[in-house]
Amino acid sequence: xxxxxxxxxxxxxxxxxxxxxxxxxxxxxxxxxxxxxxxxxxxxxxxxxxxxxxxxxxxxxxxxxxxxxxxxxxxxxxxxxxxxxxxxxxxxxxxxxxxxxxxxxxxxxxxxxxxxxxxxxxxxxxxxxxxxxxxxxxxxxxxxxxxxxxxxxxxxxxxxxxxxxxxxxxxxxxxxxxxxxxxxxxxxxxxxxxxxxxxxxxxxxxxxxxxxxxxxxxxxxxxxxxxxxxxxxxxxxxxxxxxxxxxxxxxxxxxxxxxxxxxxxxxxxxxxxxxxxxxxxxxxxxxxxxxxxxxxxxxxxxxxxxxxxxxxxxxxxxxxxxxxxxxxxxxxxxxxxxxxxxxxxxxxxxxxxxxxxxxxxxxxxxxxxxxxxxxxxxxxxxxxxxxxxxxxxxxxxxxxxxxxxxxxxxxxxxxxxxxxxxxxxxxxxxxxxxxxxxxxxxxxxxxxxxxxxxxxxxxxxxxxxxxxxxxxxxxxxxxxxxxxxxxxxxxxxxxxxxxxxxxxxxxxxxxxxxxxxxxxxxxxxxxxxxxxxxxxxxxxxxxxxxxxxxxxxxxxxxxxxxxxxxxxxxxxxxxxxxxxxxxxxxxxxxxxxxxxxxxxxxxxxxxxxxxxxx
Length: 614
Known about the structure:
Layout: H1 13-27, H2 59-74, H3 76-106, H4 112-122, H5 124-127, H6 129-138, H7 147-165, H8 186-217, H9 222-251, H10 257-272, H11 283-295, H12 298-320, H13 325-346, H14 349-363, H15 369-377, H16 391-417, H17 422-445, H18 447-450, H19 455-483, H20 490-518, H21 536-545, H22 548-557, H23 581-585
């Protein structure tokens, strides 16, 4: 079925925005010009603001006024940059890549388990985000922290997109070309996909860091900026979903990479004229920044980022070789356990617990995408009696539905669930998600047909429900992540925490590849390969039930606090390693007061110096 699990790698902008604006609001909330009282995570609109968008009083004029105020607050240049970076590159380009990657790998006769491993390698840049953050913070080039790195990533991305465009894999009749007639080998294709993802990841991370800084100085404009970024991104994702199926059908799996070239090339003039608005720093600025970062435990974060990179590189390096599925899975498991231990003992307790939970939860979301992709997209000749979904239905129809219900999930969350406790919402969301996933095993057993429900209708309904529950799982996790990022280190710390989740999702692909391999689910798109899916329901059942473990971890790792409360937030200057098990074993006394968790009061293990009282 259509899955957006991988898109979880790139959905953190709303919390980074909210975090930055909330920091500025808290710093000035006692000003006589501001309303007293607790500020919610979502920045509030000033009371003197004109008519809201879409109101009956304002109509089109209110929309124009809203955009005029957005321009007045932030300027045209940064808004143009965000259109290219967040709307086009992260919205359009990333969706095209997600949708066409499996079709491209399939054209090289890659088996289901190996397809998962290769796609995990292509997504490795999301695991590398902490390293990119460290390089940007610690190693400015010619006085600039961000634009030189974006420029290098852009040039690499343009080259990679051009190579993929120049590598047709189908003939005029839509049939696969022989491998010897193609310009790129499978290894070259995977490397090009990795490079394209590197471009998207680097520009996205550093753009987020830039507008996070802007919102720290312009908190009143945060609500407009959130709306501008998210609506634009979702809008271009819908455009991509509506067109990608037709492009693949008409031009082949390499077709969607042609429109990806345009946003990548647009970065060049924007960088040349500094549309990002980055200020050149002096050596004194860099030295002062180094000193501040060292006080907050930056050395330990660099160590964790390097270990994460090493573990991912070793695992993916083994998985890249043909026939090493089992070795890659074992290596990935050991690497994941190493990350769990290191993050658990190195970071301050409240952050360590959440990080351990994030890694384990993501790892247990066992992916069976490689087998399911062939199950749904094999033709009637390849899988008689199968769903036999066309590229238009599998990418466009399910993609549009997935995006629409993703928005619905966020709206329902915002209206009814934003004040729930983290534990209660995550417990409900995980339970519902597992229930819906269990029902999805019906399609692999063909029980839906026995009940008179067509494959298209059954998968459509399942996709919609899974997307809603996925948002209910994702939103509170993002909010908790934003609360645990100390001021001044939002970008690096958020990249590290997001990188943990990405590492977990990559591990889930390797576990899934191992399961598919052991259950002899190894389709390649051959004629009459329906027997390859006989055990797919077993893999789906395992995938649906593994997250049960996270329900038992919730009381131990997730604070029983309301999402709207601020007492979990770290104050400016806090160290992210204060009171960690590693520091205590080395004899450091950080005055960490340990309170017993109380389900009624919502207290959690926290430090009087590290965690701000509510």
